[in-house]
Write a structure and sequence with these properties.
- Helices cover 31% and strands 19% of the residues.
- It contains 21 helices and 25 strands.
- β18 (486-495) and β19 (498-505) form a beta hairpin.
- The model is unreliable at 1-10, 12-34, 55-60, 114-133, 386-409 and 639-645 (pLDDT under 50).
């Protein structure tokens, strides 16, 4: 018996919510029905130890098998986390364009950051002779604070009644509903037919490593229109013919950005055609994108649901109201709240901003002295925070300049109990409030106290019963916030007291997330997200068992100093079981070890083996064998142009 989430009514988590007792593994295999949307659960329940399971045929279902064969995964160009232009940046007609690096704390979260956030870089960290990366223009922090509220139900209904169906919606109505929603080759053919020719607006492009999103959209026949800052790297894609139109938008005047975007969209309609949808793959652009879609009567999550997900404290309150297990937490709005928060939450704990703040200021504290010190430091970090290209970055410790993000961050913090146990990601695709796909990826221990990510593996090695609990909590958390459509990257922990939510990201995860889901389960999060935002039913083909078993590792610097070269990766770059081995730091640039601050990722590696545990062992052996040539230098000697010498 299944409820609307697609889960048994009396799973272990559901039983704990009813009884008030901690959830316990049930020891029973979940229904095979769950395997359609959540393949990891059925696969994880096959044996007690998933890590010892080998690859086997993807499915006996002819349609699914043929569709997965058509993916040609061996030809897939894997993305990873590096910018697509390499580390030197992009130019167009001799003009240097703006590009962004990945937020060093949130590689899998898919958040962009300026180079100065990565290892606290700014001009004073540039190696001698290097060309500083062009900084993008814009004032995204103020944009967030100036956005209009979401429409009321009555206003939303008026928009729907007054706006004619989009071209895609009109075409969809002409098709047989049963055929277009089928998980069959014909069903996918029909969905792609509706998507081909659709005009889809993207609010900002993100960093250049996300060009694969626009390449996939182009491959599917989507006419992509990108609204971004005048200096955005995405102009390259327009010249290449990968997007239909780049429309520069001045984001520096926050009060007029919404109207400027609407004007840009009017221009897109006149030059490209009637709109079918609005979307974004960039974190801080999500609140703007959903409000634009709402105004135009196009598919969207409600602005309130997006705002709830961004406010960690509000998200916790809604989860409590829904009867979901929630970590102890307390809001901190002023210094006097710190002591009360400690009494409510206890230690160990984590202090963090309540707003989606790219993990700036997220720190573990083990006692009152550490909490007081962390509060002072986090408050300072938040005052210096800067928002650029839809992503938040830290200001420089030695700058007196005030950041631009205070208008919407409000320096409101939260103290939350520290969660023990293994961290996982659950990537979800929702269609009309119901999950169409979900899968668990194991995250490896982070580097504390900064919670810096390290590696991951998929399929998960957790038992099926635990994966089911994690998936169920992820689904119910998304629904508790009122989110209903698109792709979500949900971060959780399997603690000693059961699953607990860390946060919900209201868009596709970054770094290796898309590749992992495609390689292991055959699901392309990009394609399904495009369907969702055009209003096409989401019915992905899903492998019943893993197509590949993989592990990936972002390796941190073990010493602080200057990287001499990248030759250390060459022995592994052509290995048949190494999917990629890429440098993330160029020769001559500095690296920081955890002993001296937020550690630097120096390279990223992904491998495959017939068994996931063998893949984990293999990649860790590779990491241990690397002789990364870093010339040690104390932090105090890493200032100015001499850093490269």
């Amino acid at each position: 018996f299944l409820d609307r989430t697609g889960f048994p009514m009396r799973s272990a988590l559901t039983q704990s919510l009813v009884s008030g007792k901690p959830s316990e593994p049930q020891g029973t295999k979940p229904s095979r029905t769950l395997g359609h949307a959540f393949p990891c659960i059925a696969y994880g329940a096959g044996e007690d130890d998933a890590s010892e399971r080998s690859l086997s045929p993807a499915s006996s279902d002819t349609h699914i098998s043929q569709a997965l064969d058509a993916l040609e995964l061996d030809k897939l160009e894997l993305v990873g986390s590096a910018p697509s232009a390499g580390l030197e940046g992009l130019t167009l007609d001799g003009k240097r364009l703006a590009d962004y690096q990945i937020n060093p704390r949130r590689r899998r979260g898919g958040q962009e950051a300026l180079p100065e956030m990565v290892n606290s870089l700014n001009e004073r960290w540039q190696p001698s002779g290097s060309v500083p990366q062009r900084k993008p223009s814009g004032n995204w922090g103020s944009v967030i604070g100036s956005l209009p509220p979401g429409l009321t139900d009555e206003e939303r209904m008026k928009v729907r009644m007054s706006v004619p169906p989009s071209p895609s919606a009109a075409l969809l109505k002409e098709l047989n509903p049963d055929a277009v929603t089928g998980r069959t080759l014909n069903g996918r053919k029909l969905r792609r037919k509706v998507l081909a020719g659709a005009v889809l607006v993207f609010i900002t492009a993100g960093y250049s490593g996300k060009r694969f999103i626009f390449e996939k959209a182009h491959q599917l026949g989507v006419k992509s229109v990108v609204l971004d800052a005048p200096d955005s790297w995405v102009q390259v894609l327009e010249k290449e013919g990968k997007i239909a139109k780049f429309i520069p938008v001045d984001f520096t005047d926050a009060e007029t950005v919404f109207e400027r975007c609407m004007q840009g969209i009017k221009r897109a309609v006149s030059e490209v055609g009637e709109l079918d949808g609005v979307t974004t793959f960039c974190e801080l652009a999500v609140p703007l994108a959903v409000r634009i879609a709402e105004k135009l009567g196009l598919p969207h999550n409600t602005p309130d649901s997006i705002d709830f997900a961004r406010d960690k404290h509000k998200a916790r309150e809604l989860m409590q109201q829904a009867g979901l297990p929630t970590p102890k937490h307390h809001r901190i709005t002023k210094a006097a709240d710190v002591q009360v928060a400690a009494e409510v939450v206890g230690f160990p704990a984590v202090i963090k901003p309540v707003s989606g703040a790219a993990s700036i200021g997220v720190m573990r504290v083990d006692n009152m002295q550490q909490l007081n010190d962390a509060y002072a430091r986090v408050s300072s970090d938040m005052r210096r925070a800067k928002v650029v290209a839809g992503a938040l970055s830290e200001g420089d410790l030695e700058e007196d300049e005030q950041g631009n993000a205070g208008s919407w961050l409000d320096l409101v913090l939260m103290l939350e109990e520290y969660l023990d146990g293994q961290e996982v990601d659950v990537d979800l695709i929702f269609d009309n409030g119901v999950p169409a796909y979900g899968a668990v990826t194991d995250n490896w221990p982070t580097v504390e106290p900064y919670f810096n990510e390290t590696g991951s593996n998929c399929p998960s090695t957790l038992p099926g019963s635990e994966q089911q609990e994690l998936c169920e909590l992820a689904v119910r958390s998304v629904q508790a916030l009122g989110l209903s459509m698109g792709v979500f990257h949900v971060e959780l922990k399997q603690t000693s007291r059961g699953p607990r939510l860390i946060e919900i990201n209201c868009r596709m995860g970054g770094g290796p997330v898309r590749d992992i889901n495609l390689l292991v389960w055959g699901v392309d999060l990009v394609e399904e997200n495009l369907y969702a935002h055009v209003g096409i039913p989401v019915r992905p083909f899903i492998a019943r068992q893993p197509l590949k078993q993989i592990a990936e590792y972002s390796i941190n610097a073990q010493v602080t100093g200057i990287l001499r070269d990248t030759e250390y990766l060459k022995p592994w770059q052509n290995h048949p079981e190494v999917l990629y081995a890429r440098p993330l730091v160029e020769p001559g640039h500095k690296c920081v070890s955890v002993a001296d601050g937020l550690p630097t990722w120096v390279c990223e590696i992904m491998v495959t083996k017939p068994k996931v545990q063998d893949a984990i062992t293999f990649i860790k052996d590779i990491a241990a064998s690397l002789d990364i040539p870093i010339s040690p230098k104390p932090m105090k000697h890493l200032h100015g142009p001499e850093a490269a010498h």
